[in-house]
Amino acid sequence: MIARLDALGVVCALGQGKQAVADALFAGDTGGMRRQEGWIPERSVTVGAVETPLPAMPAGFEQAASRNNRLLLAAALEIHDEIQATIARHGADRIAVVLGTSTSGIAEAGEHIAGFMNTGVLSDEYRYSQQEITAPATFLADWLGLSGPVYCQSTACTSSARALLSAQRLLQLGVCDAVLCGGVDSLCKLTLNGFASLEAVSDERCNPFSVNRHGINIGEAAALFVMTRADGDDQTPGIALFGGGATSDAHHISAPHPEGIGAQQAMRKALAAAGLAAEQISYLNLHGTATTHNDAMESLAVQALFPAGVACSSSKSLTGHTLGAAGALEAAFCWLSLSEHNTGRQLPPHIWDGEGDPQLPRLNLVPADATEQLPARGGRYLMSNSFAFGGNNLSLILGDLP
């Protein structure tokens, strides 16, 4: 079943709002990637922080206050009119909320618990519910008065890509008529120090697929779609999720399969679900974290599926790795590439030092000065990869309607 992606709200290190994000994305603007102290002891690291002001929590939702929920609120407010129109059309009981996250409100919880360890007194502002994985979806549904299915996916870096795939299945099953779906994650010390303990965090801006790559940057973001069912004879222009593929090869608790077997299978399943051949894909958004293991296995997987090559890039050097939000954010970049916000028909450029790793297959990485990479509207299909700990792999395919 094809699912329409009727509206998008987005905020990340590139900016707030579709046009601001699109302008910075296609310009390859790395200005949002900045060195900061205070995240990891005795280190200054590059992070993709959202610098634009975030909205205050609505009245009556003070106990749900967290940076994570405020990021989500910023994305939701951008498409508030479209959401209200969807509620009016389908009814509050026929709309689901499915989000992906890995941090929820753990940033605030961590600060309160650190204060308790230092003083022995737990702040009155501490709320356990803030850190529950379901907190973002629950907040959004309560704020909008929705009574359809409400839940969060938390499968590390595939969380929000899996949320989009789950949303499509809810529509296919007839459980609901519309889904607010996407992902949100905020910067927090827990995740940054966790990745640092794996020796995976780069102090400098990340350098995906370079021989000089030396680890990831962490970022924060929210991306929220309104998804509805596309009828078989739908001739209304738009952007849709045509299919997705998920696998779990369980190769290792944190390292991917070195030959990218699960990654290949996820991409092949996405193509099969969309009824497409690999040659029909115009662009591939790579997971591209700039870690040694990920870049190596993804290069092999892409070469196996696209032996003739495919235009591709990693956006991690522009936004950082936004973890649970990454799948939805990078699907949003595909959405923006297909939308009227991309007036130059550009593709997201691959920002790196240009020094390829001779031990890896050569990929067709989109150069920073490329123009008019996409064909004219109609028959355009873009793929986005997300890979996570535990051998969790997911690929999505977005394209034009009709």
From TrEMBL:
<dbReference type="InterPro" id="IPR014031">
    <property type="entry name" value="Ketoacyl_synth_C"/>
</dbReference>
<feature type="domain" description="Ketosynthase family 3 (KS3)">
    <location>
        <begin position="1"/>
        <end position="400"/>
    </location>
</feature>
<dbReference type="Pfam" id="PF00109">
    <property type="entry name" value="ketoacyl-synt"/>
</dbReference>
<keyword id="KW-0808">Transferase</keyword>
<dbReference type="InterPro" id="IPR000794">
    <property type="entry name" value="Beta-ketoacyl_synthase"/>
</dbReference>
<dbReference type="InterPro" id="IPR014030">
    <property type="entry name" value="Ketoacyl_synth_N"/>
</dbReference>
<comment type="pathway">
    <text>Lipid metabolism.</text>
</comment>
<dbReference type="Pfam" id="PF02801">
    <property type="entry name" value="Ketoacyl-synt_C"/>
</dbReference>
<dbReference type="InterPro" id="IPR020841">
    <property type="entry name" value="PKS_Beta-ketoAc_synthase_dom"/>
</dbReference>
<protein>
    <submittedName>
        <fullName>Beta-ketoacyl-[acyl-carrier-protein] synthase family protein</fullName>
    </submittedName>
</protein>
<dbReference type="InterPro" id="IPR016039">
    <property type="entry name" value="Thiolase-like"/>
</dbReference>
<comment type="similarity">
    <text>Belongs to the thiolase-like superfamily. Beta-ketoacyl-ACP synthases family.</text>
</comment>
